[in-house]
């Protein structure tokens, strides 16, 4: 049995997270319930900071808020002193409301609207990751309107196909994101910098994809970055101060997953940067920026569900349905994401039968787990699905008009409601009558 962070089986064999009994949490706040182990989030952040501090390099870690974005997590990020990456007005608004300094916000996105860019300019966000030629000109024009010279990075696609689900690959040549290096678009963008006086170029950014277990892709991307850095200097006299390798560091969802440790990833990235600079005889090391999302919050999240109906087709399949599903966790339906689960009130009971955990939506694809061996379950028991902390709530939806769940942060035996359960009235609050 694998339990991460502060999760453990207590003396009664019940699941405890952050010193809080999962059965008590389910009774107190209802289900489905997202439970976040705050200590484990902070420890993961510390492991990134520590991994960089071992080396003599300038670095910045920006939490990719798309993995989980609400006031509470932004407050943790602020307290821990990280930067934060946003991709929309909604994420930007949340970060600002949580008190993240605008200067620590990096604005991403492949189609930022003029209104979103103006909002960011008014807030004076720290940097813009410019994705395409349209945005390059739009941002320069808007920055001029606001009498600002803004710091930018170019997002480039380095032509690296990460070993991950196809929908999570973003660094390959045909990606919708960024300036393509191979066909020369990235260098064309660099050339334009000399005539865009409201843009201050910091450097290059790439993001290879998500849930990556190997460092090789990052190392190839780095070589392509450095070619670009040299060409930018030689051809257009443009200096690069920053290289941003995005996020993507994988986590453990089930026992089949064997992610690399934080240190191993960071050590090999920093070493590779030093080697490239040395071999190319560059005067100074660029700053190294990263943007982890999943690896900061993923394993810290557990979703508690109440078990309801069952359906058994003799000798074929047994379904066990819970009170949530694709509305609170779209990942199994979208990426065939795999998860592990326990009966929270009997964590250590021997598994005796193979069942499939079904969601409650009117979709055959609304399955949380296919074929998991569990103890014999009863209606009313609490099922805990682990490692749901990233891209779970952030991709939650109201299909079938199902309200989104509540969320608590737990630490040192205390729980704090950080997101209320949506109500039925909230579901119709924007509806208008036809007549
Ligand atoms: C530009 C960018 N940066 C960072 C991330 C975070 O990735 P991950 O959650 O895999 O660390 C993403 C999402 O994949 C992204 O699109
Ligand atoms: N949303 C995804 C990955 C894409 C992340 C954003 N580029 C997931 O749940 O795994």
From TrEMBL:
Modified-residue entries (N6-(pyridoxal phosphate)lysine), positions: 66
InterPro entries: Ala_racemase/Decarboxylase_C (IPR009006), DAP_deCOOHase_LysA (IPR002986), De-COase2_C (IPR022643), De-COase2_N (IPR022644), Orn/DAP/Arg_de-COase (IPR000183), PLP-binding_barrel (IPR029066)
HAMAP family attached to this UniProt entry: LysA
Name of the protein: Diaminopimelate decarboxylase
Protein keywords: Amino-acid biosynthesis, Decarboxylase, Lyase, Lysine biosynthesis, Pyridoxal phosphate
Positions contributing to substrate binding: 294, 331, 335, 363, 391
Family classification: Belongs to the Orn/Lys/Arg decarboxylase class-II family. LysA subfamily.
CDD domains documented for this protein: PLPDE_III_DapDC
Cofactor(s) essential for the protein: pyridoxal 5'-phosphate
